[in-house]
Amino acid sequence: MGHRLGKLLTPYFFVAPNTLIFGIFVLLPMVYGLIYSFYRGNFISGLQQFVGLENYRKLLHDQAFLSSLLHTLVYVFLVVLLVVALSLALALALRATSLGTSLARIGFYLPVILSPVVVGVAWRWMFSSDLGVINALLSSLGQSPVPWLTDINWARAVVILASVWSMAGFYMVIFIGGLNTIPAELYQAAEVDGANPRQQFWQITLPLLAPTTLLVTILATINAFKAFEIILVLTNGGPGDATRLLVQNIYLTAFEGANPTYASAQSVVLFAILMLLTLVQMRVSRER
Length: 288
Known about the structure:
It is a single chain. The protein is mainly alpha-helical. It has one domain (63-287): MetI-like fold (Orthogonal Bundle), CATH 1.10.3720.10. The protein contains 13 helices and 2 strands; from the N terminus they run H-E-E-H-H-H-H-H-H-H-H-H-H-H-H. The chain has helices at residues 2-36, 54-59, 63-93, 99-113, 116-127, 133-140, 152-180, 184-192, 197-208, 210-225, 229-234, 246-256, 260-287; strands at 39-42, 46-50. It has a two-stranded antiparallel ribbon. Helix 3 (63-93) crosses helix 7 (152-180) and helix 4 (99-113) crosses helix 7. The N and C termini lie far apart (48 Å). It is a multi-pass membrane protein.
């Protein structure tokens, strides 16, 4: 009896440390954040008064929050679209195993292991209006400098490109794994039937990559919604608030505005949006 009980409990014993860490550093803060969102208070006086849904009603008229939410939705849509397309294209180009493709995979994956702060500093150095490498190159070609980080549209474009560059290598690896699960016999049969590479891609590769594409889309969406460090270092949300995303707005509300309860309400909204988008993506994939 004791031996059987020990075998039954052994897996839980190994899982317990990770479960404990997850509970303390993820679940517990989530619960406290949800509770705080129904109160009014700050870091000095603590929770002062239960206000119910007042913080959430306030969000509906908060221009800073609504603006950052709109910027975030546009940013996420463009980043996810470009990341999925670029990582899939890289995976298709580098799926064959050779020394050259292995080196290329390493090169494209290197940005993934860099700190987001390092990525932000590097891109700021490249696109600085005065001392940037890109403007120096343009000047050497006789072109006028471009206000990359001080013009609203250029700043948004640079932020999106920096984010895509830092993430594409990770999802490329996932797509390569998905491509390797597709049986080669399907492509051989398609060639016998006279299908060209484009037809093979649309009729074989893309449909069989649907689960992998869903996974990449969900992960990229979550990561894009959480974007903070790169943008903070690269543009600090500027010019104005053109590149201020929701996470930065939450940070500013909690720490610079000393209003953690109101920031908690914004965090709950962000969590609800992520959960809703994930459920919709999974539902659409399952119906297909």
